[in-house]
Amino acid sequence: MLRFLIVRIMQGIAVVTAVLVITFGLMKAAPGGPFKTEKDVPAHVRANLEAYYGLDKPWYTQLGHHLRNFATLNLPDSYRFKGRGVGEIIAESFPVSAKVGSAALAISLLLGVPAGAIAGLRPFSIEDRLAMGAATLGVCMPSLVLGPIVAMVFGLKLNWFNVGGWTSSDDWVLPSLTLGLIYSAYVARLVRGGLREVLVQDFIRTARAKGAGEAAIVMRHALKLACMPLLNYLGPVAAGLLTGSFVVETVFYLPGLGQHYVSAAVNHDYTLAMAVGAFYAALICLFNLLVDVLQAFLNPRIGFK
How far is residue 144's CA from residue 149's CA, in Å, rounded to a whole number? Predict the structure, then answer.
């Protein structure tokens, strides 16, 4: 297991480094720059700013400087948010996205797993058709549409929650519900498909022939293996939910991390774009590692390879 962890950590470092390099290359290839859009800035002032941030140096020198800063955790300042480091920006906005995302993940599992299990245990029944119909609707419903509907029903009509902002302790409910409903549809479909595939395996028929109860077969054998595809799916999804959804955060006016994904690219904020991209890549590597460890414990035949 130690060798497995070391290999995966080294792979994660390589992935994060690749993300930093690719993000830097894309930002440099895009037209414009962090200070070229400010038309009211005199040329000599812009030149001083570029010299101060090292933008007047060759691209490979800039890239090496950035990689060295991120490797030593000496995170640079943002180009657009003057006097603020990219680490400070992430530390300020990530808790908002993490709170909304973790609640959304819990909602998706609480709704999706039972719905998928019921549909998988009763194929082609009315329960199966209703659950998969709702799941298909959830897959097809974009957050840009579902968010305003949730805000209108629970915020404007019922007046239970605020429709925007981050001022009350329950402002996470509506955005979490929006994301949770959408992702519960994917969870339900994965659980149903995995359960249907496992229930026709030979070891399930053998267990039934030996007189094992259906509930014991489902809970002890079938459901555990049926959740393998779900675990693979939850790795990147958990990272995406915890780092924020730009659409949902825009709809509900949340000061989360998702807003910085687009703003950093639009404003040519190289350092913030690289930091946010590397942070997201690191989370994906971490959650994928956790998924692999869980799969090895749930199915010993997989092992730590």
Answer: 9
Paired with 85 in beta bridges are 77
Cα gap 86→71, rounded to integer Å: 14
Per-residue confidence (pLDDT) for residue 18, from 0 to 100: 92
Q: Do residues 161 and 154 lie in contact, with contact meaning Cβ atoms separated by under 8 Å?
A: yes
Residue 65, both tokens = 């400087």
Of all residues in the chain, what percent carry a pLDDT higher than 70?
85
Closest CA to 186 of 138, 247, 120: 138
pLDDT of residue 39: 59
Distance between CA atoms of residues 264 and 279, nearest Å: 14
Task: Please tell me the distance from the alpha carbon of residue 200 to that of residue 196, in angstroms, as a whole number.
Answer: 7
Structure tokens that stand for 31 in this block:
């037209």
Gap between the Cα atoms of 255 and 76, Å rounded: 21
Give the Cα separation of 147 and 112 in Å (integer): 19
H or E element at residue 95: helix 86-121
Q: pLDDT digits over 177-222, tens only?
A: 888 888 888 888 888 888 887 776 776 667 667 666 666 676 666 7
For residue 83, what are the contacts with CB-CB under 8 A and spacing of at least 6? 77
Please state the φ and ψ torsions of residue 77, each to the nearest 5 degrees.
-80, 155
Question: What's domain 88-259's architecture?
Answer: Orthogonal Bundle (1.10)
Q: Look up residue 82 and give its two tokens.
A: 């003057």
- Residue 300's pLDDT band (cuts 50, 70, 90): low
CA gap 81, 29 in Å, rounded: 22
Buried residues in 127-148 as b, exposed as e (16+ CB within 10 A): ebeebbebbeebeebebeebbb
Reported as a single tens digit per residue, the pLDDT across 243-253 is 767 788 888 88
Map residue 35 onto helix, strand or coil: coil
Q: At what angle do helices 228-242 and 270-298 cross, to 10 degrees?
A: 160
Length of the chain, please? 305
Q: How far apart are CA 6 and CA 1, in angstroms?
A: 9
